[in-house]
Amino acid sequence: MSESSEAVARSVAERFERLYGAAPDGVWAAPGRVNLIGEHTDYNDGFVMPFALPHTAVAAVARRDDGVLRLHSADVDDPVAELAVDALAPGSDRRWTAYPAGVVWALREAGHAVTGADVHLASTVPAGAGLSSSAALEVVVALALNDLFGLGLRGWQLARLCQRAENVYVGAPVGIMDQTASACCEEGHALFLDTRDLSQRQIPFDLAAEGMRLLVVDTRVEHSHSEGEYGKRRAGCEKGAALLGVDALRDVPYAELEAALARLGDEEEVRRLVRHVITEDERVERVVAFLQAGDARAIGPVLAEGHASLRDDFRVSCPELDLVVDTALGAGALGARMTGGGFGGSAVVLAEEADVPVITKAVEEAFAAAGFRAPRTFEAVPSAGARRLR
Ligand code: GAF
């Protein structure tokens, strides 16, 4: 463990002890993610390719056997929340506590004997930036409970339970990408994930070794998935699959795209959604092929194509995200696209190392000229997935 992880683990454990009067049983971490390519494909049984950020949610946790769940976060100005595990009910909580409580609910609903816990959380994953701060919270709590109650669940199984917590307990109709990324990513790799069966391949992804960088630009336009637009896109995709007579849009081969679109008749809105999903799955496969051939520079144009499809067909971009992408490409970036659900949040920019200062400055100036809030930019280095720190 690095010196800084050790320091974070110690300070979160110390805060736990001050709050609850005894040391935790352990400290765990789970990362946020960026998605390199494969957007809005996960709830269509398609392909995604996220990697973990160095930013993590950290949890100090002690097991309890008396049915009490106590939750506290260093990032929210609330006192300790005290809940009874057998009274947890979907839809009953609209605050941040719904994420960890939802995980306890989902574990118990699946038959796992989780009898209570004291939890203190602290996260460095920016909230509302489209970088999976919610999934990081869910996964870190799930991993801690998995260890403390000896459940023996694998990363992908924890991811499924966390998704259920978010879908049912929190009420956000998200796919499985973010939870799986947080649970299963590996340092130095991007995760090529088939969201139908959760089969995975770790693809080596070390841009720095090849003189490139991947920047994350947080537009600071906050997004939320429990609001309606995400759900509308999802419902539109499901309607498309039903009209085409397939279980999920993943089942329409790319070679049959034009024929499938023609069969959608006058359903123009559905046709756009379907076109995005089918072409996006093909883009993921192209990116994987380029990376495996050792040609990371070639993925740039594919990222830019993906953004155009999200902007024009899927319609989940916003002026700030478009400005990042257009400005970065105009300033010499190899590729750029929005990442995550959209309607705000972050974009990723692939660039030669030497071009990073010029691109960063161009984006900052463009935001100032447009009267937008100053964006936050950082370099994304593929980092470790969820783990125990102590
Ligand atoms: C959000 C969701 F949580 C994911 O499941 C995924 O659908 C993504 O938006 C879009 O690709 O992050």
From TrEMBL:
Binding-site list for ATP: S73, G128, A129, G130, L131, S132, S133, S134
Ranges for domain Galactokinase N-terminal: 14-63
GO molecular-function terms, A-Z: galactokinase activity
Binding site for Mg(2+): S134, E166
Catalyzed reactions per annotation: alpha-D-galactose + ATP = alpha-D-galactose 1-phosphate + ADP + H(+)
Top-level class of the enzyme under EC nomenclature: transferase
Domain GHMP kinase N-terminal residues, every copy: 99-184
Classification via InterPro entries: Galactokinase, Galactokinase_bac, Galactokinase_CS, GalKase_N, GHMP_kinase_C_dom, GHMP_kinase_C_sf, GHMP_kinase_N_dom, GHMP_knse_ATP-bd_CS
One Pfam family cited in the UniProt record for this chain: GHMP_kinases_N
Keywords per UniProt: ATP-binding, Carbohydrate metabolism, Cytoplasm, Galactose metabolism, Kinase, Magnesium, Metal-binding, Nucleotide-binding, Transferase
Pathways involved: Carbohydrate metabolism; galactose metabolism
Active site: D178
Top-level taxonomic group: Bacteria
Subcellular location, principal: cytoplasm
Magnesium among keywords: yes
Annotated positions for site Transition state stabilizer: R33
Chain ranges of the GHMP kinase C-terminal domain: 290-368
Residues noted as binding substrate in the record, renumbered to the chain: E39, H40, T41, D42, Y230
Function comment: Catalyzes the transfer of the gamma-phosphate of ATP to D-galactose to form alpha-D-galactose-1-phosphate (Gal-1-P).
PANTHER family: GALACTOKINASE-RELATED (PTHR10457:SF7), MEVALONATE KINASE/GALACTOKINASE (PTHR10457)
Protein name according to UniProt: Galactokinase
Species assigned in the record: Streptomyces viridosporus T7A
Protein encoded by which gene: galK
